[in-house]
Amino acid sequence: MTASGSSLPATFRGEVIEPGHSAYDEARRVWNARYDRRPALIVRPAGVDDVVSAIRFGRERDLEIAIRSGGHSASGHSTCEGGIVLDLSLMRGVTVDPERRIARANGGALLGELDIAAQAHGLVCPVGVIGHTGVAGLTLGGGIGRLQRHFGLTIDNLRAVELVTADGRRVRASETEEPELFWGIRGAGANFGLVTALEFGLHEFGPLLHRGVAIYPATRIHEVWGRFRHAVDHAPATVSFILGIGRAEPAADYPPEVAGEPIAILAYNHSGDAASVERDIAVLGLADGAVAVSSSSQPYLEVQTANDLALGWGRRSSIKGGQANDLRSATLDAAVEVAARAPGAASFSITAQGGAIAVHADDAMAFTGRAAAIDVSADSDWDDAADDERNLGWVREAMAVVERDLIVGRYINENDDDTQADVRASYGEAKLQRLRALKRAWDPDNIFRLNHNIAP
Ligand SMILES: Cc1cc2nc3c(=O)[nH]c(=O)nc-3n(C[C@H](O)[C@H](O)[C@H](O)COP(=O)(O)OP(=O)(O)OC[C@H]3O[C@@H](n4cnc5c(N)ncnc54)[C@H](O)[C@@H]3O)c2cc1C
After folding, report:
1. pLDDT tens for each residue of 293-319
2. Domain total for the chain?
3. Residues 174 and 305 occupy one common structural domain
4. Which residues contact ligand 1 via a Cβ below 6 A?
5. Label partner for 420 (CA 20 to 30 A): which of 128, 234, 283, 299?
6. Domain-located, residue 22
7. Is this structure's pTM higher than 0.70?
8. Phi first, then psi: what are they for 43, rounded to 5°?
9. 428-452: per-residue pLDDT in tens?
């Protein structure tokens, strides 16, 4: 059957872009240039009624349906070849009720909108670190950023979602409305419907975020790791911190003694009072063995958008990750050895969990791995397709190094692998079975399958 948008109902208020349209090539782009696909149709619903029509339209014509919020999917899930893309970019916007401390984000809203709307009232929802990421895509997978040890994962702050299901129903899910669906949405949320709105609880915070960073030659990796791992259990929850292992690119502004060499970078964000920063971060021993240390206090909104251009649309990218409780000595040595051969700025990122992340039981939501001490990922960004194999190969090799230390749980938003084996590793067998039952209840025909797919 034809995919022509001309057969969408006359009541459809949004935009329809087909091949040949002057906006088609721009409209089919997603953040990651590796996914250069040609959908038969891109529709931009103007509201929930349009979403219902577009899903029905796609189903009736047996078109593969891709849903796009911020377009940042690591696996290219928000575009497709020959199918229909439901692009939510006309459904942006965030409103805040400061009395109830609740934010309501539309299904196409970006993180920057949520940050700005909440900070206008001295409030915050913990999200990710780049302003142009989609609120929906990030939240439905979990949501990790600069404040999570203090305020929890983004899903821990999710109060309710509204969605359109595969059969066109409008459903609200929360702890008290369709609670089993709400359980699954928090970690496997792209599987059950198109989310048109998300409501979050907010925290008092800001406007300043206190930050610091130290750079070490990788020869010091064992002592730095020892302090980092100890701090996961002993640092106050106001301190979120991350350890990078990479190579000091000669082109970048690193101290001369480490230029071109493998390095470790320890960075913290302190989301409490300025007066308590020094005491709270002491456990990190930041200056010990460092070749450079710096610290500052900056407006949170400034920090949240500081890398938006550097990580802008149009580059090629690969990321893989998992969770672990510790990294063995041999793993650290191997990681440094791989980092020494990193193309460009490719690196490992080891994020401290614990704090508010660890407050909920692991089976409280579909998201899996919150009880682990760390999240560890490897990623690379590059520009030229000719460098694909070098970069993809490095990320694969880097992940193979830490693989033996991983436990059950992979954060799907930081994993471009999406086979059924990867999905099983992401949730573990027991949760996968529970998710499959949920999928059979809400999307038995697997209409929403461009995601880390729970096969019904
Ligand atoms: C530059 C960059 C920075 C990032 N930083 C962080 C970070 O700090 N923390 C973090 O946790 N993650 C981060 N991520 C990962 C990010 O969370 C995922 O890529 C996430 O999927 C992006 O969501 P999106 O809406 O932008 O993507 P999209 O590609 O639009 O969507 C991703 C997935 O969610 C589904 N989806 C999107 N919207 C909806 C909806 N309304 N209803 C149902 N399903 C929907 C899509 O079908 C797709 O499967 C980052 C990614 C990039 C590229």
Report:
1. 999 999 999 999 999 999 999 999 999
2. 3
3. no
4. 31, 67-74, 77-78, 88, 107, 128-130, 133-134, 136-138, 140-145, 190, 194-195, 311, 413, 450-451
5. 128
6. yes
7. yes
8. -115, 145
9. 999 999 999 999 999 999 999 999 9
